[in-house]
Amino acid sequence: MGINEKAAYIKGMIDGMDLDKNDKTVRVLNAVVDLLSEVTEKVSDLNDAYDELCEQVDEIDEDLASIEEDYYEDFEDDDDDYVDEDDNFYEVTCPSCGETTYMDENTLLEGSISCPKCGEELEFDYSDLDDSDDDSSDSDDDEGKE
Questions:
Q1: What torsion do the CA atoms of 56, 58, 64, 69 make, to the nearest 10 degrees?
Q2: How far apart (Å, rounded) are the C-alpha atoms in residues 122 and 33?
Q3: Do 104 and 113 contact (CB within 8 A), yes or no?
Q4: Which helix (H) or strand (E) holds 89?
Q5: Are 60 and 30 spatial neighbours (Cβ–Cβ below 8 Å)?
Q6: Cβ atoms of 7 and 36 closer than 8 Å
Q7: Is the pTM value of this prediction over 0.70?
Q8: For the chain, which terminal residue's Cβ has fewer other Cβ atoms within 10 angstroms, N or C?
Q9: Phi, psi of 93 (to 5 degrees)
């Protein structure tokens, strides 16, 4: 038996007792029963609202799970397209923000990239590595004259 039925049962018991309605005790008892009826009605309304809210949250959770599945599925597909097990990746740490990123050799050979976290331009200088890079340093000098 729910609280609404219990409150109605108590009200029915008091009504069936043929009590003197003018007696102060009976008036207090009737007021308490009326209050009990109102409280049980409010609790029932709250329970209904709670159940409806739970259903909405479950629907949102299902929608979010579907979106996450689609998003991460697309993201995993992108990783598969770009990552080759034979590629060598190099760890680069931004001197400004300390963010560590990983990049392949082709990206490093481009000479510079922007830090994905702070946007600082990270430049890579290979002139100290090999004297055969003099040709590339000559082209850098040409660029500086423009």
A1: -150
A2: 77
A3: no
A4: strand 89-93
A5: no
A6: yes
A7: no
A8: C
A9: -110, 130
